[in-house]
């Protein structure tokens, strides 16, 4: 049971709550019996559903000695705050979109490089190559990688059919990291930062007119209310990642540590299977709600892949030896 009592919790401000959680999770004198886990996506998202199962597996395997309380939809920390909240010990564990860290180091964003890995087999090979570098980079920040699960391959959402790259010129384009911002600029669009919960409002108010995202996000945000076309360009297969504060992890007993690792391995396997199923189901939902599901024209794909090549050339320069290590190990 959490050491934050029912009497005091409702009166705490967000900062005070985070401080109290940190004290429980990381204090040498405190028993690590409850871990608060922030996640950025709603309960209906398959990533969150997988994490809820992960939490159940941990509690069962530890016979209730370790409970993970999932705080979904950014209810405890906003998406961009989660990694640093875990790093700083405000919470012991959390999930976030790995590509958000591309500004810290290009190695974090390789899975959002256009057309490098566009299906699940390639995505798995890329994660195998990327993981050692990611573990080393995050390890220097006191974080341990537990598991990573991909989103479905990313498609293009627009109000009108896009037949060539030129059709994207001037459109207000939703972005969420540095890689996608550069992509938008290279196709001649106007990049605008918009996080997932704000997508419907951003389209409704005219802040954005187009976006690249998964069938999951499109269906969950009811994309048919504001766009009519989904072009299945399969631009990249980005991933979420779950990390744990290394100090909090090592305060667990050896049996509890083993239980967390085993549950994480199972969550990764289950999550990849869920993602594959999600691709088909959510694409069908888009179609059922009147969206046109379009196979991209050869002209469009040629133009997009040319831009992807330009971006990869720059990424190699920016990523240096770490990037070269990933690409050398990548065997699609």
From TrEMBL:
Q: Which domain of life is it from?
A: Bacteria
CDD domains in UniProt: PBP2_TRAP_BpDctp6_7
Name the GO terms of the biological process aspect. Answer: transmembrane transport
Keywords from UniProt, A to Z, are: Signal
Where does the signal peptide begin and end?
Answer: 1-32
Q: Which Pfam families match?
A: DctP (PF03480)
The protein's name: TRAP-type C4-dicarboxylate transport system substrate-binding protein
